[in-house]
Write a structure and sequence with these properties.
81% of the residues lie in helices and 0% in strands. It has seven helices and no strands. It is globular.
């Protein structure tokens, strides 16, 4: 089968069945792209998540674009990006067209109240998996906790957290090389 069509269909399916945004997509992307299709390895996926999260723009679009680019350069990136973005576009278009009819519908409101806790779980699971793959242990677990608290409780910009973490990682790597 044509890799462009296959990658478009894969990311379209991921996009259409994901509620909760890009982070909720991570388990689906991993299942399809890492486990089933083996387009990227688990380590590459972890790196792609870190890069996609650090880049400006929508996380889901970023990660789809990077995976598509890895597969087939620019055309692959276009196929996966369109596959990811098109379902959301179509769903939002449909909501915009029919919103007035369902705006005060208590059944629709109840459905969304029920979906919210599931979305939290869909975001939490990849977070824990990322922590495992990053090989967090009792000596390093404080780093993501401190970063999250700095952003949440102190209002520190995530941009500063990324910059500081990158500099700290660079300095740690330099010290590690000198110690050998």
């Amino acid at each position: 089968m044509n890799i462009y069509w296959e990658s478009f269909k894969t990311f379209f399916k991921i996009g259409i069945f994901t509620l909760g945004g890009g982070y909720a997509m991570i388990p689906l992307i991993e299942e399809e792209v890492v486990n089933k299709k083996r387009w990227v390895s688990k380590d590459e996926m972890l790196d792609l998540i870190a890069i996609a999260q650090s880049c400006p723009g929508v996380f889901a679009i970023n990660i789809a674009t990077f995976i598509g680019y890895k597969l087939k350069k620019e055309r692959g990136a276009i196929a996966t990006t369109l596959g990811t973005a098109l379902p959301s576009f179509l769903i939002i278009l449909a909501i915009a067209i029919f919103f007035k009819q369902f705006e005060d519908n208590h059944i629709v409101a109840a459905i969304f109240r029920g979906i919210r806790p599931a979305v939290v779980a869909l975001i939490a699971v990849p977070t824990f998996r990322l922590g495992q793959r990053a090989k967090l242990n009792r000596y390093t677990i404080w780093i993501p906790i401190a970063c999250a608290l700095a952003i949440w409780a102190l209002g520190v910009s995530p941009i500063w957290v990324i910059i500081i973490a990158g500099l700290a990682g660079y300095l740690y790597g330099k010290m590690e090389v000198k110690g050998r």
